[in-house]
Amino acid sequence: MSRWPFIYAGLIPTPEQTPGSGRTHTPLPWTQPADVTEAEAQWGVSLPVDYRAFLLEVGAGGAGPFYGLTTLSRTDAGWLWSDPGGGTVHERLRFPFPDVEESVRAQAEHERKEPVESDFEDEAAFGAAYRAWLEEDEKLSDWFLSGAVCLSHEGCGYFNWLVVSGPQRGQVWLDERPGDGRFSPLGQVGFADWYLDWVEKTEAVVRRGR
User: Is residue 130 within 8 Å of 115, Cβ to Cβ?
Assistant: First the structure.
């Protein structure tokens, strides 16, 4: 049974009720079943059940944690998730998301390889090595994001991601790499738990303000 019947526009706090300027707390129109099926076929994925139900019964994006949910919409390039700064790699959505141990090991290994200026004879050699390391960093980032859709921006370059392919399918992960953190799962949390936790906390804030 769907967990979404009670989520309606009137129950989600408005921008005036919720702290934080510039944040989107208006649900967008829901998506039609044929549209979701078309988007899944385009990118070769089967969306997690709770997120798929959300798109069909609540909205295509908008109201949600932090700066709001990214939006699934039809564009000239087909169906895309709009995620300013997050960078959903649509072409890699069909590939399995790396498992936890593999992800942690790859991150640690890459960090160990970061060039240290004192190890080089001159600045030019260090610069060349560091540029090569950054190129590998970009490739590794694309690999990390295989099989995942960006859900929301927390601010300061931190993003929440929903795994849509591979063994971790359905889990929500947090990318804290811009702050020298890791890309790691929020436990065994799925989309519905993650979203409804925000609803509960936001409603509590609203009630305290009345």
Answer: yes
